[in-house]
C-alpha cells in the first residue's frame, strides 16, 4: 500500500483516486497523526506528502518527523509536500516574485535522468497545473533538478539513490495533462503490486459492514441516485432483511422524479422501501430563508427528523446509512486533517444536527463517483441507475438562489426538465457529467408578442468531469443552445431570458449554492 499524508489540500483525495486507478491500495492520514507508527502499522511501501494551504516558511507550519526518511522507502512530495521535503533535508524555500496558479509549462533538464520522468517530456516539455506562492530556491544535498518552469527553478526534483522525489505542481488534478503518468512512475519505482480492484473493494466493504453492524437494524436514506442505491445494495448484501430504505419526497425534486425513483427501485430490487411525503414540511421551514448555508442545514435537520420518526415506527433501529461521497465530505469539513478550508456544508455532512439518535453508516465516504459506479457495476446495478447525473440532496433548493417559493420551484423544475430532455434528444446526456438549470432571483425586461415582459432569468450549466472535485464547462453548438433556449422561453411562462454558465471548477463550484 501507499500512505498519503494530508496537509489540508482540497484535492488530497484525488491523489488517492489516481493511485487507486492504478489498482494500488492507498490510505490517507492527517499530518498530525503519528506517521512513524502509521508506517509501521500499515506496512507502507511508499509515502506521498500532499499539498496544503499553508506556507512551509511559517514558524508553526504543518510538518512531520524527520525519522520518516530512515525507513528507506520511496517518497513523493507534491506542492507543499515537495517544499517540506526540501525544508526538512536542508534546502531553502522562498516566496516567489510571481505566483503560479493554473496551467504552466515545465521544461526537462536533459542533463539529468530519473525513472520518475519515464515516458514523459516527449518534446522536453509538459503542461502541468500549479497553485503556489512559494518555491524551492536551494536543493538539499543529494537532489537533482529534473525540470523547471519560468517561476519555479526546481519544479521536479529527485534523489534517485534514496528514491525521494518532489513536484511543485499537482499531478493528481485533471488539468495536469500527464499527471497520472507521473504517479504511475512513482508506483513503479516503489515496485508495488496492482491488486486493488472493484471486486476487492466491494468484498471489503461488505465484510466491514457485516462486522460493524452485526444483526442490528439499519435504515438507508434513498434518493434514487447511484450513491444511495449502491449503499443500499452493499447493505442488503451484508445484512439482508435488517435493512429498510426510506425515500423522502421533499418537494425539491426534479419533474416526475419521485414516481420514477419508486418505480425503478421496486422494479429492480427486493428491498423494503418506505416513501414519505414531506413537501409541505420542507417548504414551510424554508419560507423566507435566502442564505444557502441555512438552507442546507434546515434541509439536513428535516431529513434527520423524518428518518428518526420512521425509525421509531420500525423499532430498535440503530443506524442511518447514507450515500455520502468524499467530494461531499471534503467541501463540508476536513476528515483527514485540520488544515483544509470548508467550502460549503452538504445536507448529509455539514448540514446534520450535532445530536442524533441514530449512528451514521457511510460506506462510500472515502470514494469518488467513478469508483462508486464501478462498484455498482460489480453489483449488477442497472444502467438506469449507474448513468444518472449527480443530483444534490438539498435538490432544487440550492439551484434557486434567494428565497424559495412553490412558484419558483415550479418554473425551475420545468426549465430543468426541458434542458435534460434536450440533452437526451441530441444524444449528449452521457457525454456530460452533470447538467442543471438555475433560476436567478432577478427579473429582466423582455418583449414577447409585441408586449413587455418582466420575468425571471434562467442559467443553464453543464460540466465535464471525472471525479466532481474539478470540472470544465461542457460546450454545445449554437444550434443546440438556440433550440433549448427557445423551447424553455416558449414553454415556461415566467422565464424570458436564458444564460449559459462557462465557469470551471475551480474557481466556481458545480452547484451555485
Structural features, described:
The protein is an alpha/beta fold and 513 residues long. The chain has 3 domains: 2-190, Rossmann fold (3-Layer(aba) Sandwich), CATH 3.40.50.880; 198-386, HUPs (Rossmann fold); 400-500, GMP Synthetase, Chain A, domain 3 (2-Layer Sandwich), CATH 3.30.300.10. It has helices at 12-21, 35-42, 80-88, 179-190, 198-213, 226-239, 257-268, 279-286, 292-314, 326-332, 369-378, 383-386, 406-425, 478-491; strands spanning 2-6, 26-30, 46-49, 75-78, 92-108, 125-138, 144-148, 156-159, 164-167, 217-222, 243-249, 272-277, 317-321, 359-361, 434-448, 451-464, 472-473, 495-500. A 9-stranded mixed sheet has the order 2-1-3-4-9-8-7-5-6, with helices on both faces. Strand 16 and strand 17 form a beta hairpin. Helix 6 (226-239) packs across helix 11 (369-378). The protein is globular and about 70 Å long. Mean pLDDT is 90; it is low at 333-347.
Nutshell version of this structure?
This protein is of the alpha/beta class. Helix 10 links the parallel strand 13 (317-321) and strand 14 (359-361). It has 14 helices and 18 strands.
Amino acid at each position: 500500500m501507499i500512505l498519503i499524508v494530508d496537509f489540508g489540500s482540497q484535492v488530497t483525495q484525488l491523489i488517492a483516486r489516481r493511485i487507486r486507478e492504478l489498482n494500488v491500495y492507498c490510505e490517507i492520514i492527517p499530518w498530525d497523526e503519528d506517521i512513524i507508527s502509521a508506517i509501521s502499522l500499515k506496512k507502507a511501501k511508499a509515502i506521498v506528502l500532499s499539498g496544503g494551504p499553508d506556507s512551509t516558511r511559517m514558524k508553526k507550519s504543518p510538518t512531520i518527523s524527520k525519522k520518516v526518511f530512515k525507513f528507506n522507502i520511496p517518497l513523493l512530495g507534491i506542492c507543499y509536500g515537495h517544499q517540506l521535503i526540501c525544508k526538512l533535508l536542508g534546502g531553502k524555500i522562498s516566496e516567489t516574485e510571481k505566483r503560479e496558479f493554473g496551467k504552466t509549462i515545465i521544461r526537462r533538464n536533459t542533463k539529468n535522468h530519473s525513472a520518475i520522468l519515464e515516458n514523459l517530456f516527449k518534446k522536453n516539455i509538459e503542461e502541468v497545473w500549479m497553485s503556489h506562492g512559494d518555491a524551492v530556491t536551494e536543493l538539499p544535498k543529494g537532489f537533482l533538478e529534473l525540470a523547471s518552469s519560468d517561476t519555479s527553478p526546481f519544479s521536479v526534483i529527485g534523489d534517485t539513490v534514496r528514491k525521494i522525489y518532489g513536484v511543485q505542481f499537482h499531478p493528481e488534478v485533471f488539468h495536469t495533462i500527464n499527471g497520472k503518468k507521473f504517479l504511475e512512475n512513482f508506483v513503479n519505482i516503489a515496485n508495488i503490486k496492482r491488486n486493488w480492484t472493484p471486486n476487492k473493494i466491494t468484498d471489503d466493504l461488505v465484510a466491514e459492514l457485516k462486522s460493524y453492524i452485526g444483526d442490528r437494524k439499519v435504515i438507508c436514506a434513498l434518493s434514487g441516485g447511484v450513491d444511495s442505491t449502491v449503499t443500499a445494495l452493499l447493505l442488503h448484501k451484508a445484512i439482508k432483511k435488517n435493512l429498510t430504505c426510506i425515500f423522502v419526497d421533499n418537494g425539491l425534486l426534479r419533474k416526475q422524479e419521485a414516481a420514477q425513483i419508486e418505480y425503478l427501485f421496486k422494479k429492480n430490487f427486493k428491498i423494503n422501501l418506505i416513501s414519505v411525503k414531506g413537501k409541505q414540511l420542507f417548504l414551510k421551514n424554508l419560507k423566507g430563508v435566502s442564505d444557502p448555508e441555512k438552507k442546507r442545514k434546515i434541509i439536513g435537520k428535516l431529513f434527520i427528523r423524518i428518518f428518526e420518526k420512521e425509525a421509531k415506527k420500525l423499532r430498535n433501529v440503530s443506524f442511518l446509512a447514507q450515500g455520502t461521497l468524499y467530494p461531499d465530505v471534503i467541501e463540508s469539513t476536513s476528515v483527514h486533517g485540520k488544515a483544509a478550508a470548508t467550502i460549503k456544508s452538504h445536507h448529509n455532512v455539514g448540514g446534520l444536527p450535532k445530536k442524533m439518535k441514530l449512528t451514521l453508516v457511510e460506506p462510500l465516504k472515502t470514494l469518488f463517483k467513478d469508483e462508486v459506479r464501478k462498484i455498482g457495476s460489480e453489483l449488477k446495478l442497472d444502467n438506469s441507475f449507474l448513468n444518472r447525473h449527480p443530483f444534490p440532496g438539498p435538490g432544487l433548493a440550492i439551484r434557486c438562489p434567494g428565497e424559495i417559493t412553490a412558484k419558483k420551484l415550479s418554473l425551475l423544475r420545468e426549465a430543468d426538465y426541458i434542458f435534460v430532455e434536450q440533452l437526451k434528444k441530441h444524444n449528449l446526456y452521457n457525454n456530460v457529467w452533470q447538467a442543471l438549470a438555475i433560476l436567478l432571483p432577478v427579473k429582466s425586461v423582455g418583449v414577447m408578442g409585441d408586449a413587455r415582459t418582466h420575468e425571471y432569468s434562467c442559467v443553464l450549466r453543464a460540466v465535464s468531469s471525472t471525479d466532481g472535485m474539478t470540472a470544465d464547462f461542457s460546450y454545445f453548438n449554437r444550434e443546440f443552445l438556440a433550440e433549448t433556449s427557445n423551447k424553455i422561453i416558449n414553454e415556461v411562462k415566467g422565464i424570458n431570458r436564458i444564460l449559459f454558465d462557462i465557469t470551471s471548477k475551480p474557481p466556481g463550484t458545480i452547484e451555485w449554492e
